Amino acid sequence: MRRLSLRGRLTLLYGGLFLVAGVLLLGVTYVLFSQNFAGQYRVLIQGTYLRPPAATSSAVPPRPDQLFVLNKEGDVLTGADAESVIKAQREEVRQAAIESLLTQGSIALVVVGALAAGLGWLVAGRVLTPLHRVTDTARRIAAAPAAGHGLHERIALRGPDDEVKDLADAFDTMVERLDHSFDGQRRFVANASHELRTPLTVGRALVEVAMHRRTASADVKELGESLLTINARHEQLIDGLLILADSEKQLTTVYPVNLGDIVTHVAGQLSAEAAAAGVELIHGPGDAPTRGDALLLERLVHNLVENGIRHNLPAQTESDERWVRVVSKTVGDQVELVVTNTGPDIPPYEVESLFKPFYRLGAERLVAGKGSGLGLSIVRSVAEAHGGTVVATPRPTGGLEIRVSLDIERALEGSLR
User: Which CATH number fits the domain 146-250, given the four candidates 3.40.50.150, 1.10.287.130, 1.10.10.10, 3.40.50.970?
Assistant: First the structure.
């Protein structure tokens, strides 16, 4: 049997509180009136009597059935004078009771009202606690570092089968379906990338065999070189898709990593490519301890430096300054990796688009463009998977400054300060 709805429970709850508060106020009012009218009032009549008292002490006593009033001097007032005095006394008592009721009743009303409001506040907070859980869970999912992350969160609300539980259950069902959808998408990308490796490997082998035949002509060899270049670009694309799929997964195991060591390693790997392109590679491997996946962080640094080399100023430019600078350092409670390079002018409104997959600027949108178009997308995904941020800023003289911020390794934070 379905229990009473939340709306019905709130109606009964606040109705009961109001009823209790009204009964309490009524009781307080009754006590106040009782105290006022139960008191012994003694009214002294001052001033000129309506009828002067007898000059002699031998006043005629009033009849037993006659209304009379004695003042403090012992004078007797009877008839209309006694009625007038009693009426005046009754009015004074009434005015005193009304004044007492208005004053003390107002105070009692404020106190009881405040008490009822406090009880209502506490009870409403308890009743609305499930809604706070729904809101907190939604905010944690919204604050996840990347799309698809944080979808493992569930409300799992226990309690009566009312509207709030229906809302929480519907929310859990929606998040679960989204979680399955994102997992399926990542699995598809990973599986498709793995499956595409085989035909590309076979194609490369066939082209190489054809090129190295003794009977291969110069045209065949030239065509083979072009096919190998295209094949290598496709392999880079598949590798990028695999890395992107891995970086969007939730990190389950992290280890202490120093970005300074990664900077040194990557600079050694890319020094030959930078020299061949005529680009000076400057690196400053400062101490930057953090926690994360070392392979993914190495790919992050590698993509940034490689991007700076490949998207630098053209070799035939008149400028002698063609360089890439990569620096790691510790700033407060974070570590930073800053990669700066010379290059063409980039409009500020285009900067954010550079982090989208397969997005290229200008002429680089051609098929023969440099890279796979996933470099900066992988950088952002890796950084967000580690709880970090990536900010790119165009340089006034051309090129970019890309700053990656990650949390510092807490175990070493104290020794660095």
Answer: 1.10.287.130
Q: What is the DSSP string of 187-241?
A: HHHHHHHHHHHHHHHHHHHHHHHHHTSTT--HHHHHHHHHHHHHHHHHHHHHHHH
Task: Classify strands 255-258 and 289-292 as parallel, antiparallel or unpaired.
Answer: antiparallel
Across the chain, mean pLDDT equals: 76
Quick one: pLDDT at residue 2?
60
Q: How far apart are CA 246 and CA 244, in angstroms?
A: 5
Question: What residues contact 236, with CB distance under 8 A and at least 6 apart?
Answer: 371, 372
Q: What is the mean pLDDT of residues 337-349?
A: 91
Rg (CA), the chain: 45
Q: What's the burial of 341, exposed, middle or buried (CB within 10 Å: 0-12/13-18/19+)?
A: buried
Residue ranges matching CATH 1.10.287.130 in the chain: 146-250
Q: Is 251-313+320-410 assigned to CATH 3.30.565.10?
A: yes
Nearest in space to 307 (alpha carbons), one of 258, 336, 251, 346:
346
Contact residues for 189 (Cβ-Cβ < 8 A; gap 6+): 241, 242, 244, 245
What is the share, in percent, of the chain residues with pLDDT greater than 90? 16
pLDDT single digits (tens) 126-143: 777 778 788 888 887 777
Contacts of 164 (CB under 8 A, 6+ apart): 6, 130, 131, 134, 157
CA nearest neighbour of 382 among 242, 286, 233: 242
pLDDT at 305: 94
**Position 48 pLDDT exceeds 50:** no
